[in-house]
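pasting for ref
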Amino acid sequence: MEPSLTIDQVSSVLQTEISTIRYWEKEFSEFLKINCPKGQRVRYTEEHLEVFAQIKELLYAELYTIKGAKRRLELERTLTSALGLEQNFKTTVFFMFSAIIQELQKTREESKNLARQLELLRREKEKIEERLTEEQQKGLWRFLTDKFGA
């Protein structure tokens, strides 16, 4: 079974809004060829990710229009089919991206746990500081009553 990504993962990898991914799905459907039965969530393959990355590069870095980007993708598709690029390299890159995404998700969870622990420590520190202040005030009060008291 070919590994697949959710739209959140694709958005995260490309650092692009989900709404932008959805827009590109519609505008560049002839290049993406996403087959998803109605009622099911779309899952993206390595080829989809590559096309999305190309689209982003063309639109944002090279400043193509939508129409120009479509022409460029068509040209590249023609050249790729004529030259026959190595599929193993694409698969390797896709697996690397997948592993990076998984590591990022683990790191995000660890970071959330550390933030929760830090918040608990802050609360504990505040309680200790409050108790210390109360004890200091009691000690000062005792000193004053002993010195000037009855």
